[in-house]
Amino acid sequence: MRRERDTAEILFVIALFFLYTICTLLLSVMIADAYSRGAERSERNYNMRTSVLYLTEKVRQTTSAEGEISVRQTDEGDALVLGMSVEDAHYETWIYVEDGYLREVLLLQGSDVSPGIGQKIMPLSALVLELGPEGLLRICVTDQTGETYNGKVFVEKAGRRKAA
């Protein structure tokens, strides 16, 4: 009788150990999945906020330098074009989305933007820009999952060239 009771206790302890091990593994998998989703969401939000802040800062730098700011079209959508003059040469910085990335390229004024020419800044699937007559630039970025993030910046001298 004692032997059967010892065997039952041992089997109970082993079963309890396996139950504890299975629960620990399931909890670890659930925590890892939640962490992974949270980290991915955080990175997407960071990229979207950073892209809007990047564009906003570029506009402010150009406004303070009294350069020309305009919105133009590329094959894949809107492009922010920031003009500047250096030693009687006129340049344009194009910031646009192509092949799933926000890109930037510096060109001589009047040059065409060729596919793949811009430096990759960060992943984005769409950029929508609206420059209102009152000088308010509305920026809307879309990531690869379809989430959007909006921003606004006041452009004091939108579309005007620096006086010579």
Topology at a glance:
Layout: H1 2-64, E1 69-74, E2 77-86, E3 89-98, E4 101-108, E5 119-123, E6 126-131, E7 136-142, E8 148-154
Antiparallel strand pairs: 1-2, 2-3, 3-4, 4-5, 6-7, 7-8
Largest sheet: 5 strands, antiparallel
Provide the domain count: 1
Question: What is the typical, i.e. mean, pLDDT?
Answer: 84
Number of helices: 1
Distance between the termini: 107 Å
Helix/strand-derived category reads alpha+beta
User: Looking across the biggest beta sheet, what order are the strands in?
Assistant: 1-2-3-4-5
Gyration radius over CA: 28 Å
Overall geometry comes to rod-shaped
Instruction: Please count the beta strands (DSSP E, at least 2 residues each).
Output: 8
Strand content: 35-45%
- Helix proportion: 25-40%
Could you walk me through the main structural features you see in this protein, from its secondary elements to its overall organization?
With 164 residues, the chain is α+β, with helices and mostly antiparallel strands. The chain contains 1 helix and 8 strands; from the N terminus they run αββββββββ. It has one helix at residues 2-64, and strands at 69-74, 77-86, 89-98, 101-108, 119-123, 126-131, 136-142, 148-154. The strands form 2 sheets. It has a 5-stranded antiparallel beta sheet with strand order 1-2-3-4-5, with helices on one face. The longest helix has 63 residues, at 2-64. Mean pLDDT is 84; it is low at 160-164.
